Amino acid sequence: MNRRYVVAHDGGARETLRWSGVLASSLDVGLDVVIVVRSDDPFGGPYPPVGDVTGVITEQAQDWAREALAEFPADLDVRSDVRTAGSVPEGLLDAVADHDAAAVVVGAGAGPFGVGPVARTLLHASPVPVILVPRREPPVRIDQLYVAVGTRPGAAAVLHEAQEAAVRTGLPLHVVSLLELDSGADPDEVARVHALVSDLAVNASVEVGRGRTMAEAVGSIDWAAGGLLLVGSSRLAQGRQTFLGPTAARMLRHVPVPVVVVPRGER
Amino acid sequence: MTAAPEKAATEAKGLGDGRVGLLGAVVIGVSTIAPAYTLTGALGPTASVVGDHLPAIFLVGFVPMLLVALGYRALNSAMPDAGTTFTWSSRAFGPWIGWMGGWGLLAATVLVLSNLAGIAVDFFYLMLAQLTGNDSLAELATNVPVNVATCLVFMALACWVSYRGLEATKVVQYVLVAFQLLVLGWFAVSAFVHVANGSAPAGLSIDPGWFNPLGVDSFSSFAAGISLSVFIYWGWDVVLTMNEETEGARTTPGRAALATIGVIVVLYLTMALAVLSFSGTGTEGLGLGNEEIQENIFAALAGPVMGPFAVLMSLSVLASSAASLQSTFISPARTMLAMGHYGALPAKYARVNRRFQSPGYATVVAAVVASVFYAVMRVLSEDVLWDTISALGMMVCFYYGITALACVWYFRGSWRGSVKSFLSTFLAPLVGGVLLLVFFVQTAVDSMDPEYGSGSQVGGIGLVFLLGAGVLALGVVVMVVQFVRRPGFFRGETISVGRSTTP
Lengths: 267, 503
Description:
The structure holds two protein chains of two kinds. By secondary structure, chain A is α/β, with parallel strands linked by helices. Chain A contains eight helices and ten strands. Chain A is globular. The two termini of chain A are about 20 Å apart. Chain B is mostly helical. Chain B is built from 18 helices and two strands. Chain B has helices at about 5-15, 20-35, 35-50, 55-80, 85-95, 95-130, 135-140, 145-165, 170-195, 220-235, 250-280, 290-295, 295-305, 310-340, 360-380, 385-410, 420-445, 465-485, and strands at about 455-460, 460. In chain B, strands 1-2 form a two-stranded antiparallel sheet. The longest helix of chain B is centred in the first third of the chain and has 38 residues, at about 95-130. The chains are: A alpha/beta, B mainly alpha. Chains A and B meet through helix 2 and helix 3 of A and helix 1, helix 2, helix 6, helix 9 and helix 14 of B.
């Protein structure tokens, strides 16, 4: 069966839809464009009490969903799903479960952490990879995979994930190591990364980004326009969930390509 | 990693589980009546019409509310709909009465917005004065341009919060409710202590006669008192319609409703007795009959009763009215959304902001109308808060009355099903609805007198009447304009007249 991605849509930002289309055609996956209509929080009730408008908003959201579907080329397998939930992230995760989705695509949006509130919640709770797409026009195709590895023991897990992705998609893989010299990066790290990569079953190049800050380290790498970067979750992740670690969070702000945050221990 | 995927799935669900327990339901019930705000606004005007029979009116006033709420619940479970009164009365009585029912609801919410904002302004400056020890700051609230400007700022803030689709959360509501109950309790205890040790200005001992509703001097006073107490109870009925959200849905809703009723009635009675025995109903000084202090009673009494802790009362009323101001924006916006959706108002009212999923256009319209209304009233009226509360009570009687009768008529084929449905879809809403409409008419007639209420008048006619009747007349005009422009709704194309088909 075709792998499917859930695409978070709020009726606005078209870029996320176009990025999803590019991801779908490049990686051969189907899409479920999900609009979550928030249901009432009983504690946030109006005074005096009036009716529940979820139904009226859902009707309008069906129109937004139709508009969204029109954004995609006809040859893609795209469906829409308008659903109700207590919050947008909750609805998206329900949709992931219902559609047995392999990942959830969300626009990075804007916010204090470089991502909007919905993306932020997903990044700390999703049982499937979260794909953050930038707010600009996508390239024609995704044709390079990157994976960022750190020094911590989790590196092997995300590398494994990246290797699977490279095998599945047939795309070339680049293993990225970012060294922030100001925060005392370990000079032996590059050697360790090379050792890890040599154990992989696929060919992968190693690219080392160096800089005083994360922005400089990220900037020193020559990112391909059609790149897609995988990063692992923090060890703080509970069970099989994503949890954005502090280094990954700083990385997100500067990386020019979409970022996939992979849940910890996903197999 | 060995954690089962099922576990992850249940944890994910926990992000926004909307289940409400018994305590939560009571908190919601108390938060929707915003007791600190309603009491400060309504105690004075109610005492001015019924004198020391205040406790009796608070007890009796609850009855029609309860009867109507039963009908409201029956309609809500038979036809859950965004338009509530508007949709239900359109279904039962057709588009014209339905439209006016919706208009009554809109008018009431706009009136309460103005009043809430006005109270918030008073307490804002009072609190500043208490905090800084500079009494002249409290006087700023009586400066009309300053007052109106501050009110517009509050209104704009609350509108912005609602426009963004932000709502109070569980924690906020628990804190607000606990704080209000604590401060009101403190106030009551302090007042009784003053009475007991003889330092209260009136120092009356509780008289059984206060509980006798028949002691009220005239039916006019009685009707006016009831329509004011309808306002103070307005909103608690939300507890009756929370069935689906409550934990243990078979027992919790009933218990929650009873518990909420208990808390609210006891609270209001305690406050009424405390204020009465402390101040009496004299027309001088701190007496409840003093027109100077009636429209905002806690502003005057908190200092003498609570001493240096009066600032807590200011904070409590300010928090209560600020929270209500925000949640009150949702009501007219949603009603306009529903009316726009069914073609009873232009389609732009049905427009939903995609990002925030809030009825953006309707929210802004509600803010503008309420702001303009407040500004005009502030200039026209001697006691804007008092007059808006009186008009508001009338308007609530009007639309709740219509709603209750819509229930009776909609379920007309189902009365004989069982004793329970006979009571909840016929007897209770019929009695409640008729009572409210009688009080509405009586108050409307009485309020033509230029001396009515605060004594504000325009051209020899009481301002409260002009407000009530004027708003309804304006509704008729808007309705006819809408009929000419978009007759579809009025021909029953969007909401057909019908009746309950389940026996």
